[in-house]
Here is the input.
Amino acid sequence: MTDSSTPQPPQPGFRTDPQAVKREGASFLAAMRDLSFTENVTLRFAKALYVLGIVANALAWIGGTLAMFGLATATASSYFDDGAGAMFGAAIMSLLFGWIPALLNVVVLRVLIEFVVANVSTAHNTARLVAALERNS
Here is the structure.
């Protein structure tokens, strides 16, 4: 049993690589200019893509519903008002149930983003393990 006051030797393979810390702290724009693709912007960009996807799906649902109501109103005020009731019914259905496809789109987007982030994280961890093995051998 060791005393907690005595310093322990560093564990092999868990040394901090100063270059790796420097690379992870690189700015987004510097990573975008990296033509050798050694910097990954996926992890930084994933949150923005997810929020953008949620906003785009919400706007598409609201915009589509408003367009349906506008079309129903235009149909009702025209000479050909035979389909006005059906158009208002479709607009009401879009208002009540149009959020379901938007929600499914957001779920699929989340799964895809998590898949990409998991792949990038696996690549980062594999690179760190390979670097640690090369230092130890």
